[in-house]
Amino acid sequence: MEKQPRLLSSQLLLRNRVFEVTLNRTLLTWKEIQTKKKRVSGSMHNTFKLGSYCVPVSEIVAVQEAEVDKGTKDEGRWQKMSQKPIEGYPYAFTVSYVERERQHRWRCHDVTFHCSDGSLCQQWVQRIREQLSLLTSRPKHLLVYINPYGGKQQGKLIYEEKVAPLFSQASISTDVIVTEYANHARDHLKMDADLKKYDGVVCVGGDGMFSEIIHGLISRTQADCGVDQNCAEEKLVPCRVRIGIIPAGSTDCICYATVGINDPVTSALHIIVGDSQALDVCSVHHNNTFLRYSVSLLGYGFYGDVLKDSEKKRWMGPARYDVSGVKTFLTHHYYEGTVSFLPATDILGTPRDKTKCRAGCYICQHNGQLLSEDAQFYRMEDNISHSEMGGDWRMIRGKFLAINAASMSCACPRSPKGLSPAAHLADGTTDLILVRKCSRINFLRHLLRHTTKDDQFDLNFVEVHRVRKFRFMPKHCESDLELDLREGGAGGGKKLLRKICRDHPACGCTPINSSWNCDGEVLPHAAIEVGVHCQLIRLFARGIEDQPLFEDFCTPTVI
Ligand SMILES: Nc1ncnc2c1ncn2[C@@H]1O[C@H](COP(=O)(O)OP(=O)(O)OP(=O)(O)O)[C@@H](O)[C@H]1O
């Protein structure tokens, strides 16, 4: 690695020991050059071993001159940082930086260096601030929506106590809107928000709130760019503004999948350091009418039925998902219909390989790049229509217990592996999982495999395809003509019977139909057309980081 030139280097005091502190463009390092003879043994959290430590500049939250022993000023957080004077070192500055803890949790830690000279102290603060100001990906002004009723109704408190102080420490200004009704945030983003003013939009709530934000932001972007959302073939324009999620809901799956934990402070720090994680978005249409966007799970059959039933049991709280899950499992309904899909060919990765989507995912980068090159090529070849752009559609007709499209792994604390463990956040595809009619015991085997090491797709009634688009037509929606053709023109008798059954559902032989669960919302139509829009939005996240093998939780990186 190329050695960076030093911007500043001094001998400073830290916990009564002398350190050589050095700043270059990418790192702040401190190396002990003298140890005290007598060391007081302390707890794990305040023991400093002899050695060198470093913090990437990109993970410094703020730097501030520390007050030395005045203890009089009442300026919130900084009062806590007032330091005992050390003879010969009357000045001090504090660097706040990101420290990694267990299970992808981030915390903001402080280190205070003492200087003998006031101008040297100011020089350090200024130099570090200069370097921070060069980090252009950091947001300066954010629009924050808080759902006061999400989860345990703690959204406002979580924001005020855990997030706002960090934003102000990092000099991020905010406009905060506490929502007053469902879809308040969506409609405000769609019509009223002056998006040019902001570097990002933050939602404080659960997955439902996040869904509102993406609907508002994507619709607004398309409207501003003259793109018709109702046309399923349209190429949507990516959103400029990044989205941050402060988890405060009962389901925080998107946060879990993009950060690795649903923890408000961790998410706030990812926003502050200006992380950026692209995310694919599926558009869902019915008869060339836009229905909804989805980023995680589209599920017909089992997951649609669980959602529909659980909506009736809201009073039970989160336990409703378990109750409805058991009930739906016992009901064991299957649904007939036709699934057609456009497989994603020439890409890296398959739904059954062992690669997991992680921070800096090579598969997402590679496949995203491939798609944008393809799009450029087809734009040049004007006479090729969008629908001709790639590959052959495949069609599967059958009886299904579940049809799921997972655009991300859908891992969450309840199902750490997720519905499709190798699905990617931003590779331009969704994993289409078809679970055919099978016995209850077999279906249970499949479901249980979501929680064990066994491959949930390695069963003869389950198949999985990585696709760019798919359509579903339930049997009860197929036209009489299509059915006649399939049944070899079986004549007017069957047609008449079908009509009677449709018009008089009480006759009991009406085919049962399910609904689509679209990221936790029930869709009003079963016949849908879905297309994946590669990297349409960006989050203040970096994907799940690989955990180091030997974690040192109490100190910055030891070098
Ligand atoms: N002020 C409000 N009053 C009522 N509903 C609201 C308000 N603000 C947002 N909502 C709606 O509340 C729903 C649930 O919000 P959120 O996702 O934040 O919490 P949640 O507890 O995870 O919800 P759920 O368990 O239903 O997914 C969202 O669909 C959102 O549209």
UniProtKB/TrEMBL annotation:
Residues 137-288 form the DAGKc domain. It comes from Albula goreensis. InterPro entries: ATP-NAD_kinase_N, CERK_C, CERK_PH, Diacylglycerol_kinase_cat_dom, Lipid_Phosphate_FormReg, NAD/diacylglycerol_kinase_sf. One of its GO terms (molecular function) is ceramide kinase activity. Coiled coil: none annotated. It comes from the Eukaryota. One of its GO terms (cellular component) is membrane. This is DAGKc domain-containing protein. One of its GO terms (biological process) is ceramide metabolic process. SUPFAM superfamilies: NAD kinase/diacylglycerol kinase-like (SSF111331). The lineage of its organism: Eukaryota, Metazoa, Chordata, Craniata, Vertebrata.
